[in-house]
Each structure stands twice: as C-alpha cells, then as structure tokens.
C-alpha cells in the first residue's frame, strides 16, 4: 500500500489561504511527531481543542456508514487491494441524502452539546 506524503496536501493548503486552521480530535495519530513537524513546517495553525471533547464531526458517522457497507460483503476481502476497491466503491455509493442529513444535523449537534455542557449527546 502506498504511504501518504503529507506534502501532497500543500497545494490544497495554499489554495485555502494563509488563514488555514486545522481542527483535529487530539487522537494520538494526529499528534505524532511526524504530524507535528509537518504542521509546523507547513505553517498551519492548529485549533485548540480540549481533551475528551465531544465528537461533533459528522465524518465519524460517515466512517460508520462506510464500515457497515463494507462489512456486508461476504466473504471478507481477500487482500488489501480488494478492501481498498470495496471502500472506494461503497464510499461512492453512499446516498447524497445521508451526506446532506449529516451536514444539516450540525446545528442540532451544537445545540445539544451546549445544552449538555459538553457532555454526552445522542450524536
């Protein structure tokens, strides 16, 4: 499997402009030495994010959807190439309505998060 070159993101970062702010969830892979070095060298601002903060990011629900779709394939993938093929196929097959619902749920996610003082929500 091909590794990801973080510098391949540089054109995207430049297209966004000098006010790029990265929001991550403090997961260990996002805070590795390699990632931190890249963030500093690319001069990307990182949003301050508290530990154990609620996960409001709708992409987590997309990952769940993708996982469920791939798990419906039987038998399981024979190799990484087949897994990648299925992931791409299923990602492209997620109905637009699911994506729109996740995007439109953001307001309610924030409202519930505030109502629960940052604690557990139904999301």
From TrEMBL:
It holds the Pfam family DDE_3. Residues 16-74 form the Tc1-like transposase DDE domain. InterPro entries: RNaseH_sf (IPR036397), Tc1-like_DDE_dom (IPR038717). GO terms for molecular function: nucleic acid binding. This is Tc1-like transposase DDE domain-containing protein.
